[in-house]
Automatic annotation (TrEMBL):
Signal peptide positions on this chain: 1-20
Family: Belongs to the peptidase M20 family.
Residues annotated as domain Peptidase M20 dimerisation: 238-333
Keyword Hydrolase recorded: yes
Entries under SUPFAM superfamilies matching the protein: Bacterial exopeptidase dimerisation domain, Zn-dependent exopeptidases
UniProt keyword terms in alphabetical order: Hydrolase, Signal
Designated name of the protein: IAA-amino acid hydrolase ILR1-like 3
Organismal lineage: Eukaryota, Viridiplantae, Streptophyta, Embryophyta, Tracheophyta
Job of this protein: Hydrolyzes certain amino acid conjugates of the plant growth regulator indole-3-acetic acid (IAA).
InterPro entries per the UniProt record, alphabetical: Amidohydrolase (IPR017439), Bact_exopeptidase_dim_dom (IPR036264), ILR1-like_Hyd (IPR044757), Peptidase_M20 (IPR002933), Peptidase_M20_dimer (IPR011650)
Length: 445
């Protein structure tokens, strides 16, 4: 940013801080007992009935019902189950979007249970530790409103995201006559691996939008604080699955086989050299193999082996380069061992998430006004991926995380954990933050 632009930005910050935009009023309104109880009820209803990507029918129905009660018009269906609502102010003005993802997660939690067995023989007592695997598929948080659907849970806070955006809708609808533009409310399906944002954009639902903002809950931050940074904050991500086919046979006659297990092991080791030998040490890239499946007995080689994992980069160019090299290395290493290989990638990889500098600064100023400067923190860059990145490719975008950590309540567990829970005191903060950013953006334009 040059000196002239920086001076302009300082001037704008001064105007914002001294303007009459009702940031504190927004938060006070959202914290009113009746308002907060309304949000709690919504969030708990969604939490009890989790739905995975592009199956969010009940969630969508609840959202539409609340929008109708508020007198807000909407479009539906968008990307199968999504809802895009509009609060249209006076005159033309800019069009600004607020986004919340709706989908829940599938659960497959494996627990290791060790049992000590004591058996008396002619020789001293032996302690045998047997590892038993239990596969559970239920929410384990101690809540009265936990998931009623086996195998599914809102373990990433999307139920809170939807609730906070509905809260913002209620606040903004009350200010409709004074809005200096249009605010679109994007209730998006399929964030968890389905690239729902891409499909929302492909349907043209946001073609007329100038910028977009979203919030994601963060268990590492105490409730009452937020975090973000300008520039790229989340990585690009893709997955791969490899099938190596060889020739099975007895382990006593290896010369008559083409061992796919050996080929797979060699390939996995070679993939790691793409990071250690081909990647600039000042760049961030990862290749991780997460599963391997092949063979069922001790002395017979299988016909094929399957393995897969994820690869990530902080740049879209980096993910494209890794994809090409993974394909080349897998096929070549399989051939070295007289095997063949098939490599499958995601239909649509997630690109890196980049915060627009100006929109980040607007949101940061609002956050400081709502919560105090001490409660606005920089965001450490992560290799985690978010399909909000697709919006950031098309228009100025900003993602902030919002704290939910409250040790007294047990809101301390990471997302995607069966113990994950949300401190509901975040709901009015998120609603006011959403609304404040939208108002500030329209005021700026």
């Amino acid at each position: 940013m040059n000196s002239f632009a920086f001076l302009l930005w300082l001037l704008f910050c001064t105007v914002l801080s001294s303007s009459s935009l009702p940031y504190e009023d927004l938060l006070n309104s959202a914290r009113e007992p009746e308002f907060l109880d309304w949000m709690r009820i919504i969030r708990r209803r969604i939490h009890q009935h989790p739905e995975i990507g592009f199956e969010e029918y009940k969630t969508s129905e609840l959202i539409r019902s609340e929008l109708e009660t508020l007198g807000i018009e909407y479009s539906w269906p968008v990307a199968k189950t999504g809802v895009v609502a509009s609060i249209v102010g006076s005159g033309g003005g800019p069009r600004f979007a607020l986004r919340a993802d709706m989908d829940a997660l599938g659960l497959q939690i494996i627990f290791h249970f060790s049992v000590g067995l004591h058996e008396q023989f002619e020789f001293p007592v032996i302690d045998l530790i047997v590892s038993l695997l239990f596969v559970l598929s239920q929410e384990l948080a101690d809540l009265s409103y936990k998931s009623k659907v086996d195998g599914k849970m809102h373990a990433c806070g999307h139920d809170a995201h939807v609730t906070m955006l509905l809260g913002a809708a209620k606040l903004l609808q009350g200010l409709k006559s004074s809005l200096k533009g249009t605010i679109k409310l994007v209730f998006q399906p399929g964030e968890e691996g389905y690239a729902g944002a891409y499909h929302v954009l492909e349907e043209g639902a946001l073609d007329d939008v100038h910028a977009i903002f979203c919030i994601h809950v963060d268990h590492t931050l105490p409730t009452g604080s937020v975090s973000s940074s300008p520039g790229t904050i989340l990585g690009s991500a893709d997955t791969f699955e490899v099938i190596i086919k060889g020739k099975g046979g007895h382990a006593a006659a290896l010369h008559r086989t083409a061992d796919p297990l050996l080929a797979a092991c060699s390939t996995i080791l070679s993939l790691q050299q793409l990071i250690s030998r081909e990647t600039d040490p000042l760049e961030s890239r990862i290749i991780s193999v997460g599963f391997m499946d092949g063979g069922e007995t001790h002395d017979v080689l299988p016909e094929s082996v399957t393995f897969g994992g994820t690869f990530r980069s902080m740049t879209t160019e980096g993910i494209d380069s890794l994809r090409q090299r993974i394909q080349e290395v897998v096929v070549s290493q399989a051939a070295v061992h007289r095997c063949t290989a098939i490599v499958k990638f995601m239909d649509r990889a997630y690109v890196s998430t980049t915060n627009d500098d100006n929109l980040y600064n607007i949101a940061r100023t609002v956050a400081a006004g709502l919560l105090g400067e001490a409660n606005v923190h920089p965001f450490p860059r992560l290799m985690g991926a978010e399909d909000f990145s697709f919006y950031s490719q098309r228009m100025p975008a900003a993602l902030f995380t919002i704290g939910i950590r409250n040790e007294s309540l047990g809101s301390i567990h990471t997302t995607h954990s069966p113990y994950f829970m949300v401190d509901e005191e975040v709901l009015p903060i998120g609603a006011a933050f959403h609304a404040g950013v939208a108002l500030a953006y329209l005021e700026r334009r």
